[in-house]
Amino acid sequence: xxxxxxxxxxxxxxxxxxxxxxxxxxxxxxxxxxxxxxxxxxxxxxxxxxxxxxxxxxxxxxxxxxxxxxxxxxxxxxxxxxxxxxxxxxxxxxxxxxxxxxxxxxxxxxxxxx
Amino acid sequence: xxxxxxxxxxxxxxxxxxxxxxxxxxxxxxxxxxxxxxxxxxxxxxxxxxxxxxxxxxxxxxxxxxxxxxxxxxxxxxxxxxxxxxxxxxxxxxxxxxxxxxxxxxxxxx
Lengths: 114, 110
What we know:
The complex is a heterodimer.
Chain A: E1 5-7, E2 10-13, E3 19-24, E4 31-37, E5 44-50, E6 53-57, E7 64-68, E8 74-78, E9 87-94, E10 104-105, E11 109-113
Parallel strand pairs in A: 2-11
Antiparallel strand pairs in A: 1-3, 3-8, 4-5, 4-9, 5-6, 7-8, 9-10, 9-11
Chain B: E1 4-6, E2 11-14, E3 19-25, E4 33-38, E5 45-50, E6 54-58, E7 61-66, E8 71-76, E9 85-92, E10 98-100, E11 104-109
Parallel strand pairs in B: 2-11
Antiparallel strand pairs in B: 1-3, 3-8, 4-5, 4-9, 6-7, 7-8, 9-10, 9-11
């Protein structure tokens, strides 16, 4: 079965640079979630989109923005990167429109800020 | 009070024994509950979902839900070394947000 695809898998950036992470949800899933996970931490919810509209916002810094496109893929844009942004970034998708909240995670993007 | 609480562990269980992982939640209106397994450096993998009181079995895994006690558990029978991972309990709250516990590290002793 098709899974959530994320790209790139690894990314190294310097402080104050920008980064763009991409997520391709499971086909026919209508909701995308973004999470940040630091070492030894549980996933921290950043933002979600349902049917291409922002549906919920968590602890996403103002330096970050995201959107979901007409083909349902989503991009997380991160600007003015800081050392503390180094983390695993996961995207998850679900079929929320049918009342199921099971989220399926992608493999993640490991961002390292130097 | 944290919304979803788990014992951080590590929980050490001999190979072949039953591992029991517990989770409590604070929001009484929660209706959907999930267990994720996460290996170090990998993404969380959904292994069980449960929506009604009682037990739900899937292979070696059994999820148990008690809404009156606001308690959900995961039993792993015939534990294998490959079960060594962090197990995240997740609950859908009143505003449809998924809330993760901080996870329990499980270590299966060969």
